[in-house]
Amino acid sequence: MSKQIHLAAHFPGVNNTTVWSDPESRSQIDFASFRNLAETAERGTFDFFFLAEGLRLREVKGRIHDLDVVGRPESLTVLSALAAVTTHLGLAATVNSTFNEPYELAKRLATLDHVSGGRAAWNVVTSWDAFTGENFRRGGYLDKADRYVRAEESLRIVRSLWDAWRDDDLVLDQAAGVFAREGAGAFADDGDHFTIRGRFGLPRSPQGHPVVIQAGDSDQGRDFAAAGADVIFSRHGAFEAGQTFYKDVKSRLPRHGRAEDSLKIMPAVTVVVADTDAEALDKAHHIREQQVSGPTAIVLAELLWGRDLSSYDPDGPLPADDPVVGSSVTQGRVGYNDPAPIVAEWRAQAAANGWSLRQTVINQQNRQTFVGSPTTVAEAMNHHVQENAADGFVLVPHLTPGGLDDFVDRVVPLLRERGVFRTEYESTTLRDHLGLRR
Amino acid sequence: MSFLITSIEIDGAGGHPAAWRGSEVDPSAILTGELALRAVQRAEAAGVDLATFADALEAPADVPERVSARLDALGLAARIAPATERIGLVPTITVTHTEPFHVQASVATLDWVSAGRAGWLVDVSSSAEAAAVIGRRSPAVDAETWREARYVVDVSRRLWDSWEDDAIIRDAPSGRFVDRERIHYVDFESPSFAVKGPSIVPRPPQGHPVTALRVSSEDALQAAGDVDLVLLPGASDVEARVAAVRAAGGGRVLLSVSVLLEEDGASGVRRAEGMDHVGGVARLAELIEEWAALGIDGVHLRPASLELDVPVIADALLPLLRERKLVGAARPGSLRSRLGLSRPANRYEGSRR
């Protein structure tokens, strides 16, 4: 039997890839938008619905960045509400392990697993920067090198809290008056970052442990995922990069005593579908132009050049000077460690094609992963999965909330026809959808 | 006299320790949230204004015969929000060990998912047990935790205001999604924490979700002037306690009483230690009328059993109170408007003009 594809829906976030100027774009904050996209994903029998997290508004040159979608609700609360309007769809929350306490995380995630009947997932992310820390008691106190140490310890403790009750500790004997075995839930942990003890107030959840997702890409991050994650949310959507990443991460699993299929690799991808391949290419180009307005092109170039470029014309040539290394003109987003070779590449491409600054940004960034007719897209996706460039995909639509309609209506049926994607849910928990053990 | 506010408390299978043992209860429905959902839906249908959800940071005591497990109140309230339409949802949220930034974002989000029906029942954690599960600092005395709670309430409201209502402009010609002049840093500092802001969540539908607290100590009374809604537990000494809250400047005052109801007042036979009212609904309606004369704005009923008492509250008590003109028709709109509270002006609005 062919390898089965796993699919997740990402609610569009705060990057410039989310197009808000389109007439089809709706609120990024009203619950109706979340409900609508989740219902589409469930109609498409997706494995899970994925929410990112924001803990500080991004800044450009010390001022709040105003060109992209900004402002979003808190993930776990939205997902608890979505549990009421969905029945099978997994519900995945990105929650930072640096600015949260393991006990509170374990309690909130276990609650989501209980009220959703076993559909919760935690995307573990870390942060260390003082910029984000300014919103928290903990502050920006953590060395970058310590962040995985703390994340690992945090994850280990959260899991020990989920195991603080044994499966048979919840007795529920009404006649004898025994609700739970006496002493159930007791825990104690002495680590480098946390020394905690007490009782955990929730019995083991329907999934045992909510699904753990991880997104780091450094060597340390890959090891962290290989040691403990159930799903990797990767950024390697392109075929060859995907295969390389897949091979690397899966080869780390035996060292941690894990089987190859115990960790699913799901890159973030975008899909543009139209009646024909040519129409899809046109549509993809149109979307990229909407994603990168003139002012956005300048900001993205500032991120690379590491300095103020506001006096430049986005429709003119690229800046002539060298980039500033180690600058932080923007806060709250990923920068470039080594910008010089990327600038050289941009210059070469611009010269060869006669591109303006904006055209260069459009062509160098925001590449769509799968573009084509429904058949082209279905075949390409299936090829990626069968050839081990991925186990599935996290789809990142460019529109809220209707951005997955085309995919679910036109591509999902073709994946089903090929026997590589479920036609209906065969189980109720996310772990079961993903083929992971409880 | 204006109409009374009505509310109920959701806590496990009910406030009575043996509530979960009744044959009418499916005990496994406590931890799926189904029992709470059914109770809130019944209360909503009867016109009850709001439901509070019990919680504490630490687990419920591990005592034989008791429900020793509990869902996170905020998560449970959020799960119930899309399955209800009109009733206010007020989870207990402890603020001593949590991050104020997360707390305000979660409560604002509950307001978004419930379309303006959210509140929070602010509580503190001064026990050694609560301090030990977090492990970040030693337990503090009640007075200190309530002082800090007031800072958390203050910064939460500032963060809810950090986005003006019209901050999202979607101005295609200039390419700007938001007007950054209408989004504000709060730069808040208290003796024990600091928050830069702005919030990550745009201003919630109610402007400020309803802030409530339970006044059961002198220390809590000190904070009463900061909140929209005060719960006053127990049926004794009502007049003096209401006066004390009024003197502290508290908002709406609800008398919070535990109730075990029999539709037929003669058969009050169930075991009921420590309940404020055991008996028929007719007598309870009389008592509520007497309390109303002592100056309360409403009642917060803590049912002994969700499965037994909430249906009686819904089907018998509310109609009786309505008959006596103590309660009006169900009021539509946001929780604030149900409570007769205005939508707060944004403190930053106008600061830029």
TrEMBL record, chain A:
Gene3D superfamilies listed in its UniProt record: Luciferase-like domain
Q: Where does FMN bind?
A: 94, 148, 218
Can you provide one Gene Ontology molecular function annotated for this UniProt record? monooxygenase activity
The protein's matches in InterPro entries, at most eight in alphabetical order, are given as: Diverse_substr_monoxygenases, Luciferase-like_dom, Luciferase-like_sf, NTA_MOA
Per UniProt, the keywords (alphabetical) are: Flavoprotein, FMN, Monooxygenase, Oxidoreductase
Q: Which PANTHER family match?
A: ALKANESULFONATE MONOOXYGENASE-RELATED (PTHR30011), C2H2 FINGER DOMAIN TRANSCRIPTION FACTOR (EUROFUNG)-RELATED (PTHR30011:SF16)
Hey, which family's this protein in? Answer: Belongs to the NtaA/SnaA/DszA monooxygenase family.
The name on file for this protein is FMN-dependent oxidoreductase (Nitrilotriacetate monooxygenase family)
From TrEMBL, chain B:
Q: Summarize where FMN binds, as residue positions.
A: 55, 92, 216-217
> Does the keyword Aminoacyl-tRNA synthetase belong to this entry?
no
| Entries under InterPro entries matching the protein | Diverse_substr_monoxygenases, Luciferase-like_dom, Luciferase-like_sf, NTA_MOA
User: Which region is the signal sequence?
Assistant: none
What residue stretches are annotated with the Luciferase-like domain? 36-250
**Keywords from the named record:** Flavoprotein, FMN, Monooxygenase, Oxidoreductase
- GO MF entries: monooxygenase activity; oxidoreductase activity, acting on paired donors, with incorporation or reduction of molecular oxygen
Provide the family line. Answer: Belongs to the NtaA/SnaA/DszA monooxygenase family.
Give the PANTHER family listed for this entry.
ALKANESULFONATE MONOOXYGENASE-RELATED (PTHR30011), C2H2 FINGER DOMAIN TRANSCRIPTION FACTOR (EUROFUNG)-RELATED (PTHR30011:SF16)
This protein's name: Alkanesulfonate monooxygenase SsuD/methylene tetrahydromethanopterin reductase-like flavin-dependent oxidoreductase (Luciferase family)
